[in-house]
Specification:
The complex is a heterodimer of chains A (about 120) and B (about 850).
Chain A (H helix, E strand, L loop, with lengths): L1 H4 L6 H26 L11 H29 L5 H25 L10
Helix pairs in contact in A: 2-3, 2-4, 3-4
Chain B lengths: L12 H10 L13 H30 L9 H35 L8 H23 L24 H29 L12 H33 L12 H35 L6 H14 L15 H13 L1 H17 L6 H24 L1 H7 L3 H31 L5 H27 L16 H31 L37 H4 L3 H6 L13 E6 L6 E7 L5 H17 L3 H20 L28 H30 L12 H26 L6 H25 L8 H32 L9 H33 L1
Antiparallel strand pairs in B: 1-2
Helix pairs in contact in B: 2-3, 2-4, 2-15, 3-4, 3-5, 3-7, 4-5, 4-18, 5-6, 5-18, 5-20, 6-7, 6-8, 6-20, 7-10, 7-13, 8-10, 11-13, 11-14, 13-14, 14-15, 18-19, 20-23, 20-24, 21-22, 21-24, 22-23, 23-24
Classes of the chains: A mainly alpha (about 120), B mainly alpha (about 850).
Chain lengths: ~120, ~850
Amino acid sequence: MRALLSPCHPLQLVLGLLLWSLWFVLIYGGLSVLCAFAAPPATQGQWTLANLLLGASALPLFAFSGWLALRGWRAASNIEQSSARRFVALTGAGIHVIGMLATLFVALPLLILPPCV
Amino acid sequence: MTERQAGATPDNPQEDQFDAVWGNPRGWRALTIVNHTTIGLRFMITGLVFFLIGGLLAMLIRTQLALPGQEVVGPDLYNQAFTMHGTLMMFLFAVPMMEGLAVYLIPKMIGARDLVFPRLSSLGYWCYLFGGIILCSSLFLDLAPKAGWFMYTPLSSAAHTPGAHSDFWLLGITFVEISAVSAGVELVVSILRSRAPGMALNRMPIYGWYILVMAMMIVVGFPPLILGSILLELERAAGMPFFDPSRGGDPVLWQHLFWLFGHPEVYIIFLPAAGIVSTLLPVFCGRPLVGYRWVVLGVISTGFISFGLWVHHMFTVGIPQLAQAFFSAASMLVAIPTAVQVFSWLATLWLGKPRYSLPMLWLVGFLLVFVCGGLTGVMLALVPFDWQVHDTHFVVAHMHYVLVGGMFFPLMAGLYYWMPHFSGRMPSERLGRWGFWLFFAGFNITFLIMHWTGLLGMPRRIYTYETGLGWDLPNLISSVGSFIMAIGVATLLLDFVLHFRFGRRAAQNPWQADTLEWATSLPPSPYNFASLPRIEDRHPLWTRPDLPQSIARGEHSLATADHGRRETWGTDALTGRPSEIIHLPGNSLLPFIAALCIGVVCISLLAKGYWIALIATVASIGVLLRWSWENGAHPAAAPDARTQPGDLPLHSRTCDGPGRWGMGVTLLANGSLYLSMLFGWFYLWTVAPGGMTGEARLQHWPLLLGIGLLSAAVLWLRRCLKRLRAGDDAQLAGNLTAVTGLGLAQSALLLWALLDAGLAPRASAHDALLMFAVIYLLVHCVLGCALLALQSWRVRLGLVNAECPYEPFVVAPLWQYNLGVLASGYVALLLFPLSWSAS
């Protein structure tokens, strides 16, 4: 299990965007459920509890992905690692950064649009 | 009688040995061939035939639309033509063609002798062929599917499409999807576990990355459609109302399931094609690909983000704007990793010295056409624009720019590039250039104009139109262009056929390529390499141009076949360090018989001969279990299990061979299907809660007791395997039998719970989905028991023991999976509705 969590494990090549995918499903599913059962009035605009909750869910993912990216970057800088492990660590760090950017970009509409219109 | 390796000399005993072990039989025994080279070629030739049929249908469509008010075909036949055109091109040409090319190339590129599950390759091919034939036969019976290639309900449901039309699609395509998923599983495992010694992930040919991502996407992306097809067929045949709103179902659920598959499908087709581009461009520019790591990042990102786009096909069905904006953002986002690849290609062109040979011409054509298609894709990702052009010919034009530009052009580049591999001969430059320009001009005349036709408001899928709407001239131009394109295809075909006779003989490595597939003889022998070299960098033939000769002289590893085994290296997924010798199964008729039995199931279901279908299902299971029997230490799997002193062990003598990885990847596909089913369950609760409140309920205690029993069984099995790994096989058979007994008791409880619930699956979607889910769980639990019972039997026969511990380790993940789905199924199917009722 410890090996699985290493920044040099090939799992890092997919982890960043796997987390993003789960979050993506979460906000889409969460929005559907909120709109089905607790839809705020359209007049409230985008400043609703639903938008706040969904937007807040992006922050921990953003922070966690950032930490994973930093960890991968540091592991890739360790020249004692084999070239394969450094490749995986650095590429994995890149995937985490892409996950961070994707999270931000997809969350942007929460600042603009009401949830259930 | 077997074929000799091309160029083999009769007095070379090493080649004789290899030919005896690896040779392909002729005559009717050719049905038994499992070798990846032959299977890959069969995939591609069959794909070409389906492409031609799909192309003929396209010409029929364009003939009909050439002029207003035409009656070349009536509306019913027109519906069949466009449905079958899309279906054939997407399911029977694009995916199998790309998979076939990968099946052919991957072992050669990664320095292996075959894929790790050769019989699975063969099964995949036969399923593809039989499924394709069944589907195409509907054209001649006037029973072809006619609800569009994405089969939207309720149009495709029994009420609106009576007869077997939709059934042909649902059963035929599901049959073909067995092929796609099986090839996906085996490509993933082969790439991860059978690369040449020393070929770490960072030294893998870039094509390997593309195929790895494509194969993973198939494994995860196809099951939602398989599930959707099964549900829709059950609705049509058995009246289970999954998509019927009057009984608690929802037609939009079909759209979700279809596009959960359908959008990744576009990238499943595009990524291997982009892999061809990334492989060929460096060769014709005489320099390495610029930004290898960036391209890897781009490919992985594309693979993931493409799963977040499915709703952009459903912008007009009434989804909240915010949800649309999520998918719109993801749709724009996916353009970025694609652009990274495009910039990498441009930089490679910029920094290299391009040689404009025939394959390069197709690559340049690809860049032009695909970038245009990509840009209109970004336009369509914008919700207001999408609303304007939804279901018009603009979308048809965009789709063809992406798919033909992104798949067909690179495919043609690849086919020309690897032509010497298939035939040992070079293509004709002159005829090839004629073919390219005719196709390129015809394609753009047809589809560039079609953007305007769409913007002028012409809907897709109408069989004719009135004059005076402004659509007459653009349609005529598109039709003329399509016939020019068809002449281009005919020219290409002519070139392909003629080159086998008149093409000049290819030299070794005729394009001065860097990848290992050019280290084989041309055409290659069934075993690819007489010895397996160690690979130290990404461009082995550029750094060591003498590799083909030293490989043929047997100067590298695994250079003997006197033991009668088909061998290749099993290596570490990350570093490429050898960890075992994988011994591969030889030729076998079992895959053909299994596919034949599944074909009988398919035809029987179409003809509503359910008893015959049941018998054929039992026969299929019997054949597949017989197949599983000839594994591991079985004499048919390893006729001579001795190895040289100091050699690594055979994989069947380890605890972690490719089969375990294959089980893991298969369970990933299975998990995708299961999660899609849970998605359907939660989706229906959300959109139609009124229809999900049936009286029938499963009792809690049998499921809770079952979870307890299965947990005990999994722990017991784990303890057995721990001891087996440590070399202790005492009482192994008894322990495995006892674990099986626990599993059977749990299955019996599940069956009892199902029978006791009094479900009415025809009356409500709730009961139908509940019944489907429980049957899914039951089938898996019984399958786990059957496989473990067989292991227990094998222990008693001496086929599994401390020296050959491999196979129980392959079966164990299925038990863990079963426990996971049973426990999560209990929460979703029983506990969740309670919380719903309470709220």
